[in-house]
């Protein structure tokens, strides 16, 4: 290669590195500004999937603020406490582990003074090919991206409702722009419920499911559990996510290009945290952000998909045994327990939609 080409390549790489450094630094600074404004006294944040990638960066940046404590749910970890950081094992493929984590998250968010309260459903997974199904009959992608966060949040909301007044908290569901490639509809949900093959877009479908669930449940979660659910797509972020999709050598060679084209982990972390560090984070619900921009009011914009959304929530409630886990009666779509009369009427009423535990 002629020296001039080498020089050109070297300068491009240096410019890419410098650009990343500056963008990352600006994002970290912006996040600290937001924390200064919204952390309050003894802010508490729960983050899933905090062992690597954006979750790890989020945990690091949030815990730098002196009044923030974090509870991290990490796969393959043992329980430990390091300063204001508490780590707990969380395996989203095991719904009992999710339930145990939800109880701990509830305690953590309940204690302390009246600062920021936030749950970030960050953990995500994308498998190249569906080789195994979990014991709940779905792919690992569906379970980690949707059923896990669904169960964690719904249990949290019910615990908060049962135990009475609690500080308002936001729930940030980490979605993806790939959601637009999803073909999630009632037929696909039937296939899922029947443990049949669905599509090759499992990742997109599971992320779309997060949005539909948020659209149809966020009002009830806010009213009953004082939990204000939102969603955010962090954009394309330079993490190891998706590395299984391409050969390892291409992954290594494409590192400079990814650095130039993708956002840094700090920018991804800022997008996610910013959705909960806003004036209206715990007064409005169901908002969907793309990077830092408000993109949709899910409750309104996903209204045409309400039927499939309700079917999705009903299916998820049954698969996760939500009602049995809470040891209570079946719930309606508003999160209320059903009376015996309700149950009888339900069998004839079309618009009476059970969340779980249909007899
Ligand atoms: N990177 C992007 O461009 C991009 C774009 C849009 C959306 N997102 C979303 O952003 C979130 C974070 O992704 P990332 O880029 O930071 O990817 P990542 O580096 O692969 O991080 C994913 C995290 O999820 C955890 N996780 C995976 N399976 C789990 C399980 N069964 N139980 C518990 N935790 C599990 C991983 O834990 P281990 O480290 O222990 O495996 C890891 O900490 C994901 O929800 C992803 O879908 C990312």
CATH topology of the largest domain: Rossmann fold
Strand content: 5-15%
Largest sheet: 9 strands, mixed
- Binned, the helix content reads 40-55%
Description of the structure:
- α2 (53-63) crosses α9 (265-274), α4 (140-162) packs parallel to α6 and α6 (202-225) packs across α11 (306-319).
- It is built from 13 helices and nine strands.
- β5, α4 and β6 form a beta-alpha-beta unit.
- It is of the alpha/beta class.
- Strands 3-4-2-1-5-6-7-8-9 form a nine-stranded mixed sheet, with helices on both faces.
- It is globular.
- Bound molecules: NADP nicotinamide-adenine-dinucleotide phosphate.
- The site of NADP nicotinamide-adenine-dinucleotide phosphate has 26 residues, from α2.
- InterPro entries: NAD(P)-bd_dom_sf, SDR_fam.
- Keywords: Oxidoreductase, Signal.
- Residues 1-16 form the signal peptide.
- One of its GO terms (molecular function) is oxidoreductase activity.
Write out key terms for the chains shown.
alpha/beta; binds NADP nicotinamide-adenine-dinucleotide phosphate; 2 domains; Rossmann fold; 359 residues; 47% helix; single chain; 9-stranded mixed beta sheet
């Amino acid at each position: 290669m002629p020296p001039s080409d080498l020089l050109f390549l070297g300068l491009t790489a240096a410019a890419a590195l410098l650009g990343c450094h500056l963008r990352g630094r600006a994002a970290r600074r912006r996040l600290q500004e937001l924390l200064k404004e919204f952390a309050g006294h003894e802010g508490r944040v729960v983050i899933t999937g905090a062992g690597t990638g954006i979750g790890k960066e989020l945990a690091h940046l949030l815990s730098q603020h002196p009044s923030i404590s974090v509870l991290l749910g990490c796969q393959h970890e043992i329980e430990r406490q390091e300063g204001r950081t508490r780590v707990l094992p969380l395996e989203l493929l095991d719904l009992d582990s999710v339930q145990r984590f939800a109880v701990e998250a509830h305690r953590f968010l309940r204690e302390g003074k009246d600062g920021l309260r936030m749950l970030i459903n960050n953990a995500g997974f994308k498998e190249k090919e569906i080789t195994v199904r979990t014991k709940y009959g779905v792919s690992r992608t569906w379970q980690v991206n949707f059923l896990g966060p669904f169960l964690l949040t719904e249990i949290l909301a019910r615990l908060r409702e049962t135990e009475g007044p609690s500080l308002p908290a936001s729930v940030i569901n980490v979605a993806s722009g790939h959601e637009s490639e999803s073909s999630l509809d009632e037929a696909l949900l039937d296939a899922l419920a029947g443990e049949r093959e669905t599509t090759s877009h499992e990742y997109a479908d599971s992320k779309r499911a997060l949005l539909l669930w948020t659209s149809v449940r966020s009002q009830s979660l806010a009213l009953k559990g004082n939990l204000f659910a939102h969603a955010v797509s962090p954009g394309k972020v330079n993490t190891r996510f998706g590395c299984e999709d391409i050969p390892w050598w291409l992954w290594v060679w494409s590192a400079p290009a990814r650095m130039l084209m993708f956002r840094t982990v700090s920018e991804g972390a800022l997008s996610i945290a910013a959705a909960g560090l806003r004036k209206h984070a715990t007064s409005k619900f169901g908002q969907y952000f793309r990077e830092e921009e408000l993109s949709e009011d899910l409750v309104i914009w996903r209204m045409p998909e309400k039927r499939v959304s309700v079917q999705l929530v009903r299916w998820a409630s049954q698969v996760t045994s939500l009602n049995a886990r809470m040891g209570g009666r079946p719930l309606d779509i508003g999160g209320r327990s059903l009376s015996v009369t309700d149950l009888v009427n339900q069998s004839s009423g079309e618009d009476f939609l059970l969340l779980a535990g249909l007899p």
